Amino acid sequence: MALPLPTTLTPSKVGKFVSCPLAFRYSYIERLPEPTTTYQLRGTIIHRVLQALFGLSDASTRTYETAMTLFDAAWIAATESGELGELELSEAAMRSFRIESSNLIAKYFALEDPRSVTPVGLELDLRVNVDGIEYRGIIDRLDRLSDGRFAIVDYKTGRSPRADRSRSRMLGVNFYAFLCERLLDIRPSEVRLMYLGDQVVVVESPTDQSLRGLHQRASAVWGAIERACDSGDFRPSPSPLCKSCFYQDKCPAFSAVVGSPASKLLAEPVAVS
What we know:
Number of strands: 5
CATH topology of the domain at 116-218: Lambda Exonuclease, Chain A
Shape: globular
Order of helices and strands: HHHHHEEEHEEHH
Helix content: 40-55%
CATH class of the domain at 116-218: Alpha Beta
Number of helices: 8
């Protein structure tokens, strides 16, 4: 029996399907709920703070002190909404979580001065249909540079990846550049990944070749998703990511990997963004 296709193709869906088709099925086809993690909520809170900071019309007010005030407000909101409660942390762990999260604000300010930035879009939700595929992406920030060109900025609250994994991390921002060009008729001159965890900024310039390659890869992944939905065949792909996967109890491959020679995969470190 054919399974329903997702309505859109996003960078996270491409990444999930490529890393493990079965996890993609559980997450995006069956929509099985996943518990909120500290990494996810930390990212959510910091994104909210930076969105509010750049939403201030007076650029001169985008100071560290203002950002910390916004952080306190975001923390209170996450408490009142129950998001923090879902983590079920002890009092000591919650204090550590707050300190670690707030420290990312100082790390951000060490990377750039927000008073010098001219944002023209925050949390831009872009969608465009290309060749029958509905591409969608949410851009953290679109800046107008001093020379009139544009730059896409994507915040990552974790540490920068190893060199052998850095290319896959650029897929998202190049995906956003593709959307900007197709929908807004703007090709950003730069795409930036800002890793606040270790204060690293990775910058690339989209080219005809990189955007064409992005389109080809995304189209190929979508074709594979269509075939998997049609056949119902979403195969697991054991990797170091298995040790942090929420679907371990549902995965036929996980129990086979644990305790076998292949279990060494699960001992490898996994970068979290």
